[in-house]
Design brief:
37% of the residues lie in helices and 19% in strands. A hairpin with a 4-residue loop joins strand 5 (119-120) and strand 6 (125-129). It has helices spanning 37-43, 46-51, 54-62, 74-89, 144-160, 167-175, 185-194, 198-211, 237-240, and strands at residues 7-11, 29-33, 92-97, 100-105, 119-120, 125-129, 136-139, 176-179, 218-222, 228-232. Strands 5-6-7-8 form a four-stranded antiparallel β-sheet. A two-stranded antiparallel sheet has the order 1-2. Strands 3-4 form a two-stranded antiparallel sheet. It starts with 6 loop residues before the first strand and ends in a 6-residue tail after the last helix.
Length: 246
């Protein structure tokens, strides 16, 4: 007997723009299958959960388009994650935030409208002049592989010194690809470690948020004194399996 699984084509926030020519993701779309009982086995794998890789294992299992998973841009991976949840368990997602219950319609989440006016297609970096030091800095879009390297480096630093929490500077070292024309990693690390002003570091993070293709994972809620506030939708294992742990 022949069996088949339904699939859907998912549009990527990047539209494939920042992948090399000929790369499977350069089309701007990926094909994804619907979740099966096999994927629910992945969701309950305690080893994956403890290692913090369960969501990536799940997405790899669902993707039908063949490509090196490490190549995917973080914002595109976020969009695939939301699509996987909608296809598997529906668009309505309820969660607890600050001790209160909230619900969002995931199908209404829009892709961000990034500003790519600072992009240099020749060097494949986004340029900005730092407001305080006036250094010219080039940054890149982070991939899943970059995120893994950052996590591994931070984990390694903590093993050497448990009080060494260098997540901010470590991420900046991977985000920055040039400083005043120099692409030497030693120059970039020296600059971040000793010469990057806090105001300039914030400018880099703000610029990255402005240029990164992504899906908008924000929701609004009523805060203190009835003032409307914005926060990021919390995502864990129960995001994919609402009954997880029950």
């Amino acid at each position: 007997m022949e069996f088949s699984l339904p699939t859907e084509t998912i549009e990527l926030p990047s539209k494939g723009k920042f992948y090399p020519e000929g790369h499977p993701l350069a089309s701007g779309t990926v094909e994804m299958k619907y979740m099966t009982a096999k994927e629910e086995d992945i969701l309950t794998n305690q080893n994956y959960i403890q290692k913090g890789v369960v969501i990536d294992k799940l997405l790899k299992s669902l993707l039908m388009t063949e490509f090196d998973y490490g190549d995917i841009l973080v914002g595109d991976k976020n969009a695939i994650m939301i699509a996987a949840r909608i296809l598997s368990y529906g668009k309505d997602y309820s969660f607890t935030y600050n001790g209160e219950q909230h619900s969002v319609d995931l199908s209404l989440l829009d892709n961000k409208e990034p500003d790519h006016s600072s992009y240099n297609p020749e060097t494949k970096e986004f340029m900005l002049t730092l407001p305080k030091s006036k250094y010219e800095v080039g940054i890149k879009l982070l991939t899943h592989s970059d995120d893994q390297k950052i996590d591994q480096e931070v984990s390694g630093l903590r093993k050497i010194n448990k009080d060494n929490i260098a997540e901010v500077t470590t991420r900046l070292k991977h985000l920055i690809v040039s400083i005043n024309g120099s692409r030497e990693r030693a120059d970039i690390r020296k600059f971040v470690d000793s010469y990057l002003l806090a105001a300039d570091a914030k400018a880099i993070r703000d610029h990255y948020n402005k240029v990164q293709p992504d899906i908008n994972l924000k929701f609004t809620y009523e805060g203190q004194n009835g003032v409307e506030q914005e926060a990021t939708i919390p995502i864990g294992v129960d995001f994919f399996w609402p009954d997880f742990g029950e």
